[in-house]
Amino acid sequence: MKITQQATDTSLTLSLDGELDASSSVILDTELSKPEVLDYQKILIDCQRLNYISSAGLGVFISHLQRLQDANVKLIFYNMQEKVHNVFEILGLDSLMTIVPTQAEAVAI
């Protein structure tokens, strides 16, 4: 798993490349735990190259969701592959988290 970051004044984009499993979820958790994450209005998760997500990977997003919401930081997923999106749907996470098809839509929120 490779995580690339790109920041603007109001948003932080994390591009996920590879498989988000038990071992790589630790890296993502470290990134989302940083205090400066709360300085942004939006955390955008680019899932275009995310091939697989395990329960540990999902758990990282779930564990940070309330913290981000309390700080008025929006967590927005985009460019999600169908098989990854299906996992979110099956678990009902698509109703808890914002998932949009494109980067333009994610930025516009």
UniProtKB/TrEMBL annotation:
SUPFAM superfamilies, per the entry: SpoIIaa-like
UniProt superkingdom: Bacteria
Ranges of residues in domain STAS: 1-109
PROSITE patterns tied to this protein: STAS
UniProt GO molecular function: anti-sigma factor antagonist activity
Pfam family, one: STAS
InterPro entries from the UniProt entry: Anti-sigma_ant, STAS_dom, STAS_dom_sf
The family this protein is said to belong to: Belongs to the anti-sigma-factor antagonist family.
Name of protein: Anti-sigma factor antagonist
Source species taxonomy: Bacteria, Pseudomonadati, Bacteroidota, Cytophagia, Cytophagales
